[in-house]
């Protein structure tokens, strides 16, 4: 094991995901069967009232699972999950009240509810997940959706039952015990499926989206599409739960879909432990069950208690009560084995003729903020095998230029072509798919994921993620593999990124970007915060990448020595325009450049 | 005279009974009456008076030995004046607390939601609130009025005595509001009048501004309202007065107690009820005295929503005694056949599970009292549930 | 027509009074205070207490302002400050607070609906029609309130410091401004204003533990659409509030209740800056 400037500590033993699954699936299966058995036996042991309450609690548990996936894992704070529940319930209520309750009608309602819910979710997603929409907005929209649902029911007058709701409609002739088993089994199955889903690669992706959505975009992942799919599927599941509720309860009321219920769901998930699945389920079932008993005797005190507990948890224990309680027990397992896939090398791609010619062409690019012009008339191109450094005094517009190249919505005018194709107004993921890779100035990574998971997500474009498995292998192209090995990250595959050193995080991000097999790589001050040794190592890597792998690198830097050592070409920006574009010798001996850097008043852009 | 004597008798009985009562009941011999009611929500203003009437009835019955020797226990649950809350409350009462009967006043939303639970539990349900009519179930009995009994009194008076021809209808958007005003419209039009507008606000809404603007524009001879009991009545009355609109106002859904809490803004409003505190008979005197004695300064004004509760509990008692047991089927069979002579006179739920009632048309005075203008004896409830006997 | 015009203006005024407190909190602290509705309720109950004690109804609003200010200070220290870096969690925690407040009020005052004596009764003739005097009074209150706040913001040191924090908190801190104190004072004032609004609107409506919720939603949307400008808020109240009145009067009051919320949501999607001048 050679000494790396980046590596620290002794590598921990790691286990492949498939090994972990082999060990755990036994426990998983046993637990599932056990809970199903408990559910089946429940009605024999419990009294009628408890059974009727638990049916409702179980269905609420199902919604809690969807809310946890949306919020706990993916970071989508939705106040309106209750609306989909209401839609499913009203589908049955309306159908049965206004039409004869025959099998085809029942089936129709069973399908109609989730379909309408999915449509509503699509609308919400379209509004809330667009580019440049703040995360607050989706919360706003879900709140609005709950208000609209209730008001729509009110406007329905006699047709929808308005504030009174619909009751006494014909429903399935199924006894309470059977409903208990159906609801309980449904909850167990949904939770089990969710657990498998969250363990899979897509599950890690959801966490990545929560952690750093921007980075996901820059890995070429259409995060809006992922979130939309998630919201729509959660809407469908919740609508089914609502249908079951209406079928059992024989009463539907607007309260089922209002925002108070929506926030109650959030409270249960927060208390149970967001991002833990089991916690929210237990919290939902337990709190609802206990509330039913206490609502007669100590209704306000109980609600007061829950409200206070909620505030305490949010402020002091945001991970939730579940994790807070179990952390003590799990601490002794801290030395547990880490799980990480292994890395394998991709064979080198064949470099065809298309690799000749400029891989990035920028023509007359400009960026204006109102009357303030930041960039104007920027025109240049770069080819594979070139390491172009962009330098210039502060405020010259370097980072803005990088932004305009990597995000089609940023520039005011001009064209940017990558690999001959214009980026138009494409979002970052579109630009990435054309062959762009961007490394940010500060490490822009996924703090909560492991090194290997981060690399896997970086490979997501080329190798689609599985929704139920966690793959054993992450295949990296030679360039990425080289960075990983050279910086010692291959010894830390299972380490959580948060625990890496600054230098290691920078290296990881570089490896991630290279893993996407970009044709042109944008690097924003890659040496920021690195030690001298680390800087030398990175410099060597970059040179190798350009020389051996035919990459084209665009580099923003302030360390002029570094730039002089590694660049094949230097472009100097000043006051939003290119002052000089030439090889190292030309630029470093230029009088113009010297005067710009020394701030002489006579220096002016051409 | 008789009133005072009756009062003295009650007092003596009460004192004797209070001493003797604890000994009269064996351990665990209770009959539980469930009262799911709107302690929160739209009905929260009137609920306390209903609870008090129930408590008085239970206390009186217990001092006289209970029902078939069983002590009457009341179980009260909050239904939040709405459908979803009602399901939870009814479930709790019927399946957890295992009540013998449900006797309560509720919004129509809550009542409709509770009926399936009642049917599942096969529990006798005496509904003690006036409502829009036509709610039918073998388990449901009503001892309060329906539109057929009440609307006519107001409309007739307005049209005949006040010469009103054009009417503006305003209400809360739910079964009761729409049912009452729907009936009112038909009645008005059948008698040659014209309804210029019919406006509804959601049950829990409190801002009547758009409705009042339309009212001003329509300039009718009379306004008739039918809102959810309690808060909507008060907000409508206050905002009406505050906007300076001065029109003949008949309120189908306000009771004396609410009228009192509205205060001066309620002056001049016409109401039609089956109970007014000024009814002059010994039962009413004894009833009011009993309330005062039991609750003192906390006493809520008895009204057309609370007195039927009192009547309802006594009717249940009579039915159980007639049936000779608490068995639900027997009690259900006996309920239409029994009667109770209470503050509103003799009540019998024998007309398709509904009761003929004496209606009083009154006008709210400046001091909050209600002056009786006309009395209508034994008004028939009409064809409420043709399928039920 | 006059009636409609007056309806629009008075509705806008009432919305403005209710939303101002939420706006200044959003501007300075960058969080949406979901407890705003419960401070409104506290203000309403302060007015109720005044009525029950038999004091002059004019004492209600000042008492409410004080109660809201004090409680807001406590809340800022205990709940809002620790959540400075977690704005979405701050929304949740303040919503939890509103639940707590509702339950405490219920325990203290009961669940029932109560009514407050109006300091000013009856109607006056304005522009040819009779109109509720109290509602007209609200126009005056809104203008005065707006005027006072703008004066503070533009004319006092506190206002200057607050504006600095609104624009760029990190920069303000580096210039030596104690932004924590600014946020503390702002939150307290915002809560006080919410309570004041509650006391002012109760004579028109009623007082019950849940009275704050519908106002919270409308105020929330109005604030999002206004960004950080008091003037934009006024504009939003007039435009959106006016739309609500029109829809309620000529359409359906139920849709009317939705108008502000729906229009604001659409507006925010099209133009995330809302009414704020860019």
CATH fold name of the largest domain in chain B: Rossmann fold
The CATH superfamily of the largest domain in chain B is Response regulator
Determine the number of helices of chain B (DSSP H or I, runs of at least 4 residues). Answer: 12
The helix content of chain B is: 40-55%
Low-pLDDT segments, ≥5 res of chain B:
1-24
Termini distance of chain B?
42 Å
The dominant shape of chain B is globular
The first-level CATH class name of the largest domain in chain B: Alpha Beta
Per CATH, what is the topology of the largest domain in chain A? ABC transporter involved in vitamin B12 uptake, BtuC
As a whole number of angstroms, the C-alpha radius of gyration of chain A is 29 Å
Low-confidence stretches of chain A: none
Highest CATH level, the class of the largest domain in chain A: Mainly Alpha
Q: In total, how many domains does the architecture of chain A comprise?
A: 2
Structural class designation of chain B: alpha/beta
Report mean pLDDT of chain A, rounded to a whole number: 85
Structural class of chain A: alpha/beta
Helical run tally of chain A: 23
Sheet with most strands of chain A: 6 strands, mixed
Neighbour order of strands in the largest sheet of chain B? 2-1-3-4-5
Overall pLDDT score of chain B: 85
Q: How many β-strand stretches of chain A?
A: 16
Overview of the structural elements:
- The complex is a heterotrimer of chains A (606), B (389) and C (278).
- Chain A has 606 residues and is of the alpha/beta class.
- Chain A folds into 2 domains: 14-260, Orthogonal Bundle (ABC transporter involved in vitamin B12 uptake, BtuC), CATH 1.10.3470; 358-597, P-loop containing nucleotide triphosphate hydrolases (Rossmann fold, 3-Layer(aba) Sandwich), CATH 3.40.50.
- Chain A is 55% helix and 13% strand.
- In chain A, helix 2 packs antiparallel against helix 10, helix 8 crosses helix 17 and helix 18 (478-486) runs antiparallel to helix 20.
- The longest helix of chain A has 29 residues, at 17-45.
- The model of chain A has no long low-confidence stretch (mean pLDDT 85).
- Chain B is α/β, with parallel strands linked by helices and 389 residues long.
- Chain B has 2 domains: 2-145 and 278-355, Response regulator (Rossmann fold, 3-Layer(aba) Sandwich); 147-273 and 361-379, Rossmann fold.
- Helix content of chain B is 43%, strand content 21%.
- Chain B is built from 12 helices and 14 strands.
- Chain B has helices spanning 2-24, 47-63, 83-96, 108-121, 147-161, 175-190, 209-218, 231-242, 256-262, 282-295, 307-323, 328-334; strands at 30-37, 71-78, 101-104, 125-127, 140-142, 166-172, 194-201, 222-226, 248-251, 270-273, 339-342, 345-348, 357-364, 370-379.
- In chain B, strand 8, helix 8 (231-242) and strand 9 form a beta-alpha-beta unit.
- Chain C has 11 helices and 2 strands, in the order ααααββααααααα.
- In chain C, 74% of the residues lie in helices and 3% in strands.
- Chain C has one domain.
- The relative contact order of chain C is 0.20.
- Chain C has a two-stranded antiparallel ribbon.
- Chains in contact: A-B, A-C, B-C.
- The interface between A and C is large, with 39 and 39 residues.
